Amino acid sequence: MTIEHDRDIVSAPTELMKFETRHVPGALKLSQEMVWPYRRDDWEFAATVGNGLVLERAGEVIGTAMWWNYGQAYATAGMIIVTGSAQGGGHGSRLLNELLEATDGRNVLLNSTEEGLTLYKRRGFTAWGTVIQHQGPLTVAVTPNARDDIRSASVSDLAAIQVFDKSATGMCRPSMVAALADVGNVLVIERAGRVAGYAIARRFGRGYVVGPVAAESAQDARLLILAQLSKLHRQFVRIDAYAEHGLGGWLESLGLKQVGFATAMVKGRRPVSDGPAGMYALANQSFG
C-alpha cells in the first residue's frame, strides 16, 4: 500500500451505523489490537444478546460500542474501542454520545480501564467500586466441598435463577441470564426448596470464565466457584470479581493471579440488591 493511499484512507469520512454480523471480523481485529482476549464467538454472542454501534472509514471498522438493556431502568455498556490510528479524533466521544442516547434515559453502568476514565467522567459517570481480574492456568487440583445443596441446574430452574439474579443485581435481565445459561455450565445452591445462589462457567477468551456468581454470602460464592473450578483443572480460567467482597487473596491462593483491574462506574443511579443476595463475579466486564 502506498503512502498516498494510506493518507486517502485516513482522510476519508467516517460513517456511524448499527453493528451487524458483517462487522464481527473488523471488531475482532480491533480487540486484538488492544490485546483483549475476545474470540469471534465472543463478539457474536455479545452482539446477539445486546446492541451495538460501529464506526466505518473507507469500509474498515475503526470503532465499536456495545450496550445491553436490562429492563426500563438500567443498561450496561462495554467493548468501546477506537483503533490507535484514529484515536484523538473525537471518535470515542461520538460513539459514547450515540450509545447514551440509544439507552433511552436508562441508568448506565460500565467498567472502565484507566485510559477511559477521563472520557467517562466528562460524560457524567462516577466511580463506585473496583473489579479485579484474576486469571491463569488452573494447575491446582480443586476439590469441591461435599455438599448436597450444590447441584447442576436443570431447565426447570431457569425461572428461579432469573429471579435470584434480579435480587442480586437489582436489574431485570432474564434474557441475558437465559443466554448465558444456554451456553454455559450452571450450578445452583438449593436451600429449603429454593435457589439461593448460582454460578455459570462458559467458554470465553483464552479459556473459560467463571461468572456470573451470585450468592447470599461470600462463603456461598466461594463454594460455588470451587464447584465450578473442580471441573476445569488445567484449563485457562478467568474470574472478574468485585474487590469489595475480599475474594482476591483467596483466588490468588488457587493460582489465579490478579492481572488487572477496572473501575466500576455509573451514570445515574446505581442498582441496589434485594436482601442478602449479591453479585460476586461478573459474566464479563461488559455485561456486568
What is the topological layout?
Layout: H1 3-11, E1 14-18, H2 24-33, H3 40-49, E2 51-57, E3 60-70, E4 74-82, H4 91-102, E5 107-112, H5 117-122, E6 126-137, E7 150-152, H6 158-169, H7 174-183, E8 185-191, E9 194-204, E10 207-215, H8 218-229, E11 236-242, H9 248-253, E12 257-267, E13 278-281
Parallel strand pairs: 4-5, 10-11
Antiparallel strand pairs: 1-2, 2-3, 3-4, 5-12, 6-11, 6-12, 7-8, 8-9, 9-10, 10-13
Key structural traits:
288 residues, alpha+beta, Aminopeptidase, 2 domains, 13 strands, globular
Task: Explain this structure.
The protein is built from nine helices and 13 strands. It is of the alpha+beta class and 288 residues long. It has two domains: 3-105, 3-Layer(aba) Sandwich (Aminopeptidase), CATH 3.40.630.30; 133-260 and 267-281, Aminopeptidase. Strands 1, 2, 3, 4, 5, 6, 7, 8, 9, 10, 11, 12 and 13 form a 13-stranded mixed sheet that branches. α6 (158-169) packs across α7. Residues 1-9 have low confidence and may be disordered.
